[in-house]
Amino acid sequence: MDELISIIVPVYNAEKYIEETIACVAAQTYEDWELLLVDDCGTDGTLKAIKRYMDNTRDPRICLIRQPSNQGAARARNRGLQEAKGRYIAYLDADDLWVPEKLERELAYMKEKDAAFVFTGYEFADEQGRGSGRVVHVPETLHYRQALGNTTIFTTTVMFDTEKISRKLLEMPAVKSEDTALWFRVLREGYTAYGLDENLARYRRPAKSLSSNKMEAIRRIWNLYRRSEGLSLPRSVYHFCFWAIRAVKRRI
């Protein structure tokens, strides 16, 4: 199990996308993985779609985990973390996609850098998963202070090595933008995030998704600075300005 990658996917009302997302994992050139689909008690046909895919493929690497009630993405990811058997932890959102070489390239990069925490570049995609040509490039390294004003770490591109970083530290807090809050916490502990500047994922942005709501994104990042990180007002304003500039650049 030393080379096993556990891929954690929180699933909630993703009927339109989930089979394509599972298929992009099945198509990976790196084959030593387990896919943990954590069903968060949605109200559409997602569960049926997952069971149909599992029945058709009979792939033992795909595992369905059901939450007892709807508890949100953070707790769903934490449940997946508890169940994960792999040394390496990767996250994938239920509507996003990976290129076939994603796991292979990222794991090789992680070993090359002897890193505990890596992430990659990615491309914005439309609702059908088609790449828009807008690729987000990432820096080679990010430390805590840099990350406060440069939140380019995208959940679907992240990988951790649990032999170098404890699973307890990787538990996501139950706050909005829980993924960014986790990156901040890990980096605050002194870890470095290493960026592989290759376009290995597609970030699907449905018109009505939470992430596409700009005002909500502004509130979430501001609350992270002030509440989760406990930054002073001047420091929050300072980092927020850099975050806003980079956020705009990523989308143009």
Description of the molecule:
- The chain has 252 residues and is an alpha/beta fold.
- The protein has 8 helices and 10 strands.
- Strands 1, 2, 3, 4, 5, 6, 7, 8, 9 and 10 form a 10-stranded mixed beta sheet that branches.
- Strand 1, helix 1 (18-26) and strand 2 (33-39) form a beta-alpha-beta unit.
- The radius of gyration is 17 Å and the shape is globular.
- The N and C termini lie far apart (42 Å).
- The mean pLDDT is 89.
Number of strands: 10
Large-scale geometry: globular
| Gap from first CA to last CA | 42 Å
Radius of gyration: 17 Å
Structural class: alpha/beta
Question: Which ranges are low-confidence, i.e. pLDDT below 50, for 5 or more consecutive residues?
Answer: none
The number of helical runs is 8
Can you give the helix content as a percent range?
A: 25-40%
- Biggest sheet details: 10 strands, mixed
The SSE string, one letter per element, is EHEHEHEEHEEEHEHEHH
Mean pLDDT: 89
Strand content is 15-25%
Question: How would you briefly describe this protein structure?
Answer:
The chain has 252 residues and is an alpha/beta fold.
What are the main properties of this structure?
alpha/beta, 252 residues
Sequence-ordered SSE layout with sheet pairings:
Elements: E1 5-11, H1 18-26, E2 33-39, H2 46-57, E3 62-66, H3 73-83, E4 88-91, E5 97-98, H4 102-113, E6 117-125, E7 131-136, E8 141-142, H5 144-148, E9 159-161, H6 178-188, E10 193-204, H7 214-228, H8 233-250
